[in-house]
Predict the 3D structure of the following.
Amino acid sequence: MRGVDQDTPQWTPEARTQFETVARQAIDALKAHVDLIRRVGPDDGQEQERSGSLLTAALDNLADAEFDLTGDFPYVLDLELSTDDLAEEEGDDEGEELDTVAVLMRMDFAVDDHDVLLQTARQGVVEHDEMDAEDAEESITEIEAAIFAVAHARGWDALLDDAVPGLAALSTYAEVVRDPEELELEVDEDPDDED
């Protein structure tokens, strides 16, 4: 994905028209791929791969068109490594078995209303964690704590869906790391363990 070009004007009529055209092409490619998958069998691998490549190209074009229109990184479609990049790396490591990979996510938000966000987070822990309202008010006094509390109660997807009062999603970014040991991060070995 290209970097942000501060000199390029956004939200132009030309960019909007191009985005709508590419979006229709992406929708057509997705429909075609879905129709293909519904009717193919185990012996149609090449046809499936070809259709998948066309769909990937269409989505890449859509991501570029959205970037040209908005000047921001598209949601979901923006991945650090393209399909070609992954194929090259897989070729380099042929025969090497990978136990784990890490997907690093960055999500940028605008805080529209601090008080509303804090109150939303406090209400969430009262309902989700059965915390006393007074304790919730004392424990959640900063925006950082509020966002973690909302994500814990509703899931991170709720933040991206603009479903949290006082918070507006701006952009998201993902990076795939093939050797998590190089990150030197504290990792929760049991993500399902909430204790």
Remarks:
- The radius of gyration is 21 Å.
- Residues 13-39 form the longest helix (27 residues).
- Strands lie at 102-111, 167-177.
